[in-house]
Design goal:
Blueprint lengths: L1 H21 L4 E5 L4 E6 L5 E6 L9 E3 L2 E5 L4 E6 L5 E6 L10 E3 L2 E5 L4 E6 L5 E6 L9 E3 L2 E5 L4 E6 L5 E6 L9 E3 L2 E5 L4 E6 L5 E6 L9 E3 L2 E5 L2 E6 L5 E6 L9 E3 L2 E5 L4 E6 L5 E6 L9 E3 L2 E5 L4 E6 L5 E6 L9 E2 L18
Antiparallel strand pairs: 1-2, 1-32, 2-3, 4-5, 5-6, 6-7, 8-9, 9-10, 10-11, 12-13, 13-14, 14-15, 16-17, 17-18, 18-19, 20-21, 21-22, 22-23, 24-25, 25-26, 26-27, 28-29, 29-30, 30-31
Length: 360
């Protein structure tokens, strides 16, 4: 009997070990101004590895094909093994990479720098494919749709470039610096600028279709879903995507630099009033709020029923997506302005702004 129990126990241990090996832990990656990129266990917040750069990180990481790409104030774009954090390659630009998160499409990684340039690099090797020079710093993340790269610059222009060659197709002048990354849906591009204007632009011609004026600079990047475009400024705006007519507005006590995220029929975003909000996507009615320890300017990511969001109190929070109850927190050594990214296919849900690496 003892022999049978021993064999049964051994089989159960083997089965448990096999199942554990077959289901690797989901990781969440987040950068901090303490110069580090962290890889954390998404369920517990336990640190798995950390990669130190030589400058602040305000560029959100992006995951593609087992590689994490992240830019730093030290002028470098890094490509890291997503499982181990080991450096695969780095590419040095002529200026800080501030806020311009990389975009990976068809084997090419695109990233902007405050040296005025948009770079296109081989995603596997880091070799330069082409470079396009604007007239001022690039803080926005590039967007690639149907072979065209769309990128805004502090020179006030939004550019449409050939994704393979960098050749300019058109440029639209918004008359004010562009910090916001663009969103594209149904042949229309949506973007805001630091002059408080929000535009809808025909992606084929670069012609303006409609615009509205808000009460503050727009650094929040928009999302488009179900015929509605959402973006933050002083308030969170929900507009008819075809006409620009306002459907609803949500006011907090301070501005929204955070870009909205749509998942579970809820809009998630943080505010400079130190609160993180969940709102009904159709009506703007508040469902819950979470009080953080400082202003929130980064976007969230939603995976496995959990919302992950960084904060200027140096922490990454994991919150229950339905209730806002805190699951865990991880403290870095500096402000967390970046958007986290979750590293397992099929677990990320929702509609995200282009600043987020979610789901890639």
């Amino acid at each position: 009997m003892r022999t049978f129990l021993f064999l049964l126990s051994s089989c159960l241990c083997f089965l448990y070990s096999f199942q554990s090996a077959a289901k690797p832990r989901v990781l969440v990656y987040v950068g901090s101004v303490d110069h580090n990129l962290y890889a954390l266990d998404a369920q517990t917040g336990t640190q798995r590895w950390v990669f130190k750069t030589q400058g602040e990180i305000s560029s959100s990481p992006v995951l593609a094909n087992g590689v994490v790409y992240v830019g730093s104030y030290d002028h470098n774009l890094y490509a890291l093994n997503a499982r181990t954090g080991h450096l695969l390659w780095k590419f040095t630009t002529e200026g800080d990479i501030q806020g311009s998160s990389p975009c990976v499409q068809n084997g090419i990684v695109y990233v902007g720098s405050i040296d005025h340039n948009l770079y296109a690099l081989n995603a596997r090797t880091g070799v330069l494919e082409w470079v396009f020079k604007t007239k001022d710093a690039i803080h926005a993340r590039p967007v690639v749709v149907n072979g065209i790269v769309y990128i805004g610059s502090y020179d006030g222009n939004l550019y449409a470039l050939d994704a393979l060659t960098g050749e300019e197709h058109w440029a639209n002048s918004s008359r004010h610096s562009i910090n916001s990354s663009a969103a594209v849906a149904d042949g229309v591009l949506y973007v805001g600028n630091r002059g408080a204007d929000f535009y809808a632009i025909d992606i084929h011609t670069g012609e303006e279709l409609w615009s509205i004026e808000t009460e503050n600079v727009i650094t929040s990047s928009p999302i488009v879903a179900n015929g509605i475009v959402y973006f933050g400024a002083d308030d969170l705006h929900a507009l008819n995507a075809k006409t620009g007519d306002q459907l609803w507005v949500f006011k907090s006590r301070r501005r929204f630099d955070s870009s909205p995220v749509l998942a579970n029929r809820l809009i998630y975003l943080g505010s400079w009033d130190t609160n993180f909000y969940a709102l009904d996507a159709q009506t703007g009615t508040q469902q819950w709020e979470f009080k953080a320890g400082g202003p929130i300017s980064g976007s969230a990511v939603v995976a496995n029923g959990v919302v992950y969001v960084g904060c200027s109190d140096h922490k990454l929070y994991a919150l229950d997506a339905q209730t806002g109850i805190k699951q865990w927190e991880f403290k870095t050594g500096g402000f967390v302005y970046t958007t986290p990214v979750v590293a397992q296919n099929g677990v990320v849900i929702g509609t995200y702004p282009t600043v987020s690496g979610a789901g890639k």
